[in-house]
Amino acid sequence: MQKTMKAAVVSEFGAPLRIDELPVPTPGAGELLVEVMACGVCHTDLHAAEGDWPVKPAPPFVPGHETAGRVVGIGPNVDGYKIGDAVGIAWLHDACGKCEYCITGWETLCPSQRNSGYSVNGGFAQYAIASAAYAGRLPGDVDFASIAPIICAGVTTYKGIKETQAQPGQWIAISGLGGLGHIAVQYAKAMGLRVIGLDIAADKLALARSLGADATFDASSPDAIAQVIDATGGGAHGVLVTAVSRPAFSQALQYVRRGGTVALNGLPPGDFPTPIFDVVLKRITIRGSIVGTRYDLSQAIAFAVQGKVKANIHTAALDDVNDVFDQLKAGKVDGRVVLDLTKARTQKTRSHADDRYATV
Ligand code: NAD
Ligand code: ZN
Ligand code: ZN
């Protein structure tokens, strides 16, 4: 009989995820079978499950792209991996390796890339497939739950901070201090920047201060823009917007310093107005930033392994994924919730009949 695994499945957009039994996948050429130990729940997984974006995944699919686990199977044509190796599976599941983007260090822009938890099944499952050439290498003694958020929130914000081109000693403002933002504060400090944190939730501001932010401001206050400009002596040299809120994007254009760069990580659906006069006369750069390359990922992991960056995590069971989505939607997660897949092994698998999520 084929071996099966528990997985959280998006069967239709906007519906609760179903906990299903799926066949354990078989690694093909160049692939690894990974026993998932932990997988962080990124707001992107929620966007995916809701079908928020113009390019949509095709249900049924398994979300999850902050996957950390151990290699338990190796497909043909794989070099350099052995059973038991610890790996991460990031959003960039794989790319073509040949296009102009791939060969110039911009594999994150490859038009043929596949994405974990979106176009390829992800880590909300007991097992997942990694592409050996794109997996992130983790130390053998790694704490899987702690490292999981680094696989997306870590690499994304580390890269996003670099994309602002703010220099050590200069000011960066981090707008949105959730899963991405609370980690961004730590990378920015470790990179020698002075950090302003902005969020609409007081507990997120407190968390950012406890993680080293030099000052934090309530983004919903009418004074927020003036406060950032005042605290930074003229505006932040770089801004990283991770907020899931369109007004946060417009606001950033008003407190960035003249000549500064606003890097955009957050992906709320829709548009935001861009005041042409301000952008031109203040020479503001607005730059999208999407996850990071394999090299960025290895650097982001190194910061965490050295103890310079540590996600504030809460663990949950796979069966509770819909509750975690509800908390994320309501802005109630301080830091990151990480699904502990080792718990799935001891839990009784729900049948569809008694699955409270499937019957909603
Ligand atoms: P999250 O829900 O953990 O955090 C979002 C934070 O934004 C919350 O703390 C919330 O209080 C705050 N917020 C809401 N309105 C705000 C406002 N007006 N001003 C400031 N803060 C505000 O989400 P997350 O997992 O950190 O993801 C954030 C966004 O980044 C999502 O849209 C996600 O899809 C996107 N993302 C992008 C990339 C990328 O490569 N560009 C990678 C990962 C995630
Ligand atoms: Zn993510
Ligand atoms: Zn390519």
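^ zinc ion complex. The pocket of zinc ion (ligand 2) is lined by residues 42, 44, 65, 91, 152 (CB under 6 Å). Residues 348-360 have pLDDT under 50 and may be disordered.
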